[in-house]
Amino acid sequence: MYPMRCDNVQLLICEDEFGTKSYYAVNAAGEEFSVSYPVFKALRHADGTRPLRLPEDDVDLLAELENDGLVHTSRLVREESCSRLILFTFGKERVRKGRPVCRVLNAVLPAGAVLTLVAGIAIRVLHVLNDGVDMDSFNLPLYVGLLVASAVLHELAHLWAAISYGFPVFEAGVLVENVFGICLYVAHGRKPGATKAEEIQVALAGIEANMFVMGLFLIVSVLCEAQSTTFYAAAAAQIGLIVSNLIPSKGIEVDGEVALNTLFEVKSIYDVARKWTGSKRRRRKLIRSAGLPGAACIALFRVIVFANEMHLMWNAIVAFGPVLLVLITKMLREY
Fold first, then answer.
1. Smallest Cα–Cα separation from 47: which of 93, 1, 91?
2. From CA 71, how far away is CA 269, in angstroms rounded?
């Protein structure tokens, strides 16, 4: 991979009283380094899509920048709580070329997801009412492939939305937290002046993609009788993926967490929920002042806190639940 600027690296320009400019780079640990203008310019354009244009007379400069925590060339980035494997990097030129297509896809996604899901449910229900349920054919490799494809489309939807609204997009890859905390991700920055609607759509675009995939799999489960059970199980798994992405999670900004943070203008809806549910005085105060809506807020906060504690177990249910359901159903029918 071409050199890429490390996370949280700051590039600073200082000008003295005589108009002389000095250039500095600050790494994530807060260490400050004085750099020349050519190096400063190279760091500013270090997005992983092209070689760095460093002074040719210093062959060890790239190694020094890596050692100082300013750039990295490895696709595997280890952090305190997780690791991530960078699969793709996006520069400004790539983003600019893809923006027209992304705008079209992002515009049709919300309505298309709802319509496809409604159509899929209706077609599946009519099929079951007329022909019954066939649970005899299940293809595990195909099922896993369908889940991977739905996860890829989920992240592509985030990418389309971010690019269409002009959010800076940096990279995409695989995030590994633990044995059940393995997921794909798209890293993007904040857009100055972005509206709430834009930020919420960027956050929820992946869930809309899962809704579209669920409806599509339900339709295919009716049209393709040979793999009906496999597609139906993959469609059922989308429910788990949707809920898993909606649950606010401590330490990881999943889709629901970002959307609720934006909507209520808080830093972390999970922290707010934990604060209000953990204090009896706060709960009583909210219920006395707001009445039934206050009680509803407390109930919602309790769900958020409980769901966060069960997040790892829920991820396991998402992956294996539909498969177990199919196997149990087949065993009962044979018995």
1. 91
2. 33
